[in-house]
Amino acid sequence: MEPRKGSADSVRRFSAFDQSIAESSVSTAHQTRSVNTKEYDSILYGPIVDYSFRNLDSVHDAIKLTPRTGVKPNVFTEDRKMKSCSLRLSHNRLNDLSGLKQLIDTLLVEPRRLFWIDLSFNNFDVIDPVLILCIHLQVLNLHGNQVAKLYEVDKLAVLVHLRSLTLHGNPVELLKGYRSYIVGQIPQLKSLDYSTITKQDRSTAAVMKSFTRHKRPVRRRYKD
Fold first, then answer.
1. For residues 67 and 3, what is the distance between their CA atoms, to the nearest angstrom?
2. Model pTM?
3. In angstroms, rounded to a whole number, what is the distance separating the alpha carbons of residues 136 and 54?
């Protein structure tokens, strides 16, 4: 299956929004810095490591390639690790994330601090559980894929720092209760599909979750 069409400019359209969501919640991370403040900031806010539009069928293939260069050039350490906590793999032909850990361990100077991943416009039909290993993940873009089951988002509930999620353009978006279900399952979210989660969203989600929890199965009646 071919990846959905798009342009390099459209990939960057929401980057500033994503970064603002993530930056608003990184203050707690300062308590556990392993490097000095100036160096930490240069890593956290370094240019996105960009492998979009590279015709990737596998994450492993990215290791052999040089990331795309944006407005800001990639910054490397002496051992050729990149100073960044953001990874873009959008507009490819990926259907699983085998090799993701190896990729970020190879590329990033502090892979455990990865907080922004763009996997939009690929061929994912499930949410790969490898994502829960990215414990500091705050922004996850999955729009324009093939995810069709609502319960797939349950996997992301353990990502306590997750603030922004996109799933529009997936078949799951058409299911009744889509937004309320996700807000209920991942209450730490502040934005869903680039739309701020409101008090009304949370209230509706709570009602839906309560109703689902207490709903009893209908007993079948059998004829004598």
1. 19
2. 0.80
3. 26
- Taking the CA atoms of residue 189, residue 105, residue 97 and residue 11 in that order, the dihedral angle to the nearest 10 degrees is 60
In sequence order, what are the beta bridge partners of 165? 140, 192
Task: For Cα atoms 142, 147, 150, give the angle at the middle one, nearest 5 degrees.
Answer: 105
Q: Strands 195-196, 191-192: parallel, antiparallel or unpaired by DSSP?
A: antiparallel
- Residue 206 to residues 59, 182, 200, Cα–Cα distance (Å): 37, 11, 10
184, 210 contact by CB (below 8 A): no
Tens-digit pLDDT profile for residues 131-186 = 999 999 999 999 999 999 999 999 999 999 999 999 999 999 999 999 999 999 99
Angle at 117 between CA 112 and CA 118, to 5 degrees: 165
Rounded Cα–Cα distance for residues 166 and 13 (Å): 14
pLDDT digits (tens, 9 = 90+) for 41-64: 555 668 999 999 999 999 999 999
CA distance 156 to 90: 19
